[in-house]
Write a structure and sequence with these properties.
This protein is mainly α and about 230 residues long. It contains four helices and no strands. The radius of gyration is 36 Å and the shape is elongated. The relative contact order is 0.15.
């Protein structure tokens, strides 16, 4: 009886290992699917706000350009005024003209900086938009790859293995299907593993002749093996 029990618990241990491996794989697939969904959502949000942000940054650049043009004109007038004051040789007039010239040049420098910053923000947005197109293509490919991995997988609903429709909307819709299918599959797999562990524990208690504290199938197998050696 004990040898037969050991053989059975070893079989349950192997079944436990198999289900544990499958659970880990399902967890990996779920995490990968979640990552695809999160990135698709971020890209959709970028696409939605892109027109307004482009318009806002375009207006900021135009305003900075106008401010710079005005600052350059004021700086030119200040420089001309300084030259005229220096030509007259009036100290007080020269001092006042120099102060005005310094302020005008400072204002021009600030206007130049604001324009560069506005242009940089606009360029960053365009770079982000360009990168998002590449990301979207990569994301669609990743979703198709995951759909292939889910196709015909035990306990995973067939919908999850169907390739997503083109575009981010298609990816998002597939993620919803795949996520639901994976949760159901994992729940079923976990229930099967729990049943295997429960059977092993019941068998261990039967061999020991007394209730045993809950243990893994490997621990139960060792307990049964010890009972066989001591018999």
């Amino acid at each position: 009886m004990t040898e037969r029990s050991l053989a059975l618990v070893r079989e349950l241990e192997r079944a436990d290992e198999t289900t544990a491996t499958e659970l880990a794989r399902l967890d990996d697939l779920y995490a990968a699917t979640e990552a695809v969904g999160a990135r698709a959502l971020a890209l959709e949000e970028l696409a939605a706000r892109l027109p307004e942000e482009r318009a806002t940054l375009g207006r900021a650049v135009e305003e900075a350009e106008r401010d710079l043009a005005a600052a350059e004109e004021a700086a030119a007038r200040a420089a001309e005024g300084l030259r005229a004051a220096e030509a007259e040789g009036d100290r007080e007039l020269v001092a006042a003209a120099r102060r005005f010239d310094v302020r005008a040049r400072d204002a021009r420098s600030m206007a130049e900086r604001r324009l560069r910053e506005a242009q940089a923000r606009r360029d960053e947005l365009e770079e982000e938009a360009t990168a998002s197109k590449r990301d979207a293509a990569d994301l669609e490919a990743r979703a198709r790859e995951l759909a292939d991995a889910l196709r015909d997988r035990p306990r995973v609903a067939p919908d999850a293995g169907r390739a997503p429709a083109p575009g981010l909307a298609g990816v998002t819709e597939w993620v919803t299907r795949a996520r639901a299918a994976l949760l159901v599959a994992r729940s079923q797999q976990a229930a099967e593993r729990d049943a295997v562990i429960r059977q092993a524990n019941e068998l261990g208690s039967l061999v020991a002749g007394e209730p045993l504290p809950p243990a893994s199938t490997a621990a139960v197998a060792r307990r049964v093996e010890q009972a066989l050696e001591g018999s």
